[in-house]
Fold this protein.
Amino acid sequence: MVAFPRLLTTTISREPAPETVISPSVAPAISVQAVSKTFRLPHQQYSTLKERVLHPLRSTEYDELHAVQDISFDIAPGEFFGIVGRNGSGKSTLLKCIAGIYGVDSGRIGIAGRLSPFIELGVGFNMDLTARDNVVINAIMLGLSRRAARARFDEVIAFAELEQFVDLKLKNYSSGMLVRLAFATAIQVDAEILLIDEVLAVGDAAFQQKCFEEFFRLKREGKTIVFVSHDMHSVERFCNRAMLMEHGVMRQIGEPHAIARAYHKLNFGKLPHDAPAKDAGGAGTAIADAWFESTAGERIAESSQEEPLRMCFEVRFAEDLEEPVFAATLRTELGHTIIVARTDERGAESGSFRAGETAVVRFEMPAWLTPSRYLLTASIARAGTGADTLALVEDMTSIVIHGSSSGGILELPLKTEIERS
């Protein structure tokens, strides 16, 4: 959020208001139905038997962490399905429930096919053994026969680009070498369903590109893949569908671009007001229109960086209000919040309004924005903290800013000074 003290001006004018996904014929490869998982977090941790004997009742006190709450979805055979969310949202816990690592408290998970989890690469590696021994042992643990594991050894080492380090003990490997070896081993498993949890979080750019190419190969072969990631570019690049989780709850499921935008909005696009509750009567204070205009009062759809800019919206009141909070939020097409303008900042007053009145709110500012398209969200809330929202309409209108770009979000006027010594 960027504030423009003394450069952002607000005007409110009034006028009397006039009188009032998956084809049903295909059995899912993965079916998750009403799944919930809760962890108990004890208040007291014991390190010795003596402590447990001396304080037997302390272990009964605990908090509950609802990591996954009533999640339901189906994944079709051959679908590349993404799960996204912020840290602590429950996505990795859900993946471990699907893998069978965690049992579920309620609900049902159905798996149709052989499953291979890529959740913690390198689990089972022995640091005192060489890469040669670890590849064979790990491949057998993942389900390959001894003969198949030995037959694919050269392919694994070639993919990991570790031919010169085959007989080196893993305790002498770097973290990047370890993850390359683990990934190269894991992809040899002949499974129909793959669970992938942030395996590309480490590794150099060249190896990540090689992994991407492997994903394309698996996708072409019709593998069913569940992909947990914070990288929205990868989600949009690979996934057929995606799901957004927050606090253990499924917030949205659908087309990857829409989910990526919702994820960015969750992280960077918080609005000054929450969406209002549904009005059963259907008649309340409403935002009737929103637009951008020049300082001459003309409505515009584009502007240059040199010209001041006004964010405007019209409100129709269905009740009497004292000092309501008007707000305008300017966001990018990815949902990143750039500017939040509110009438309750810096001691400003919005005034009193009667039912039936109409008011036009204008926030004026310099257009010091990088060339791009920007979207306007308008909202109004009752006086106070602004938590009691009366009306909010997201992305009502947009404007395109023209000009030069330095690559940053803002194009502020700069003064340059170079002093020689």
Notes: The first helix runs from residue 49 to 54. The longest strand covers residues 62-75.
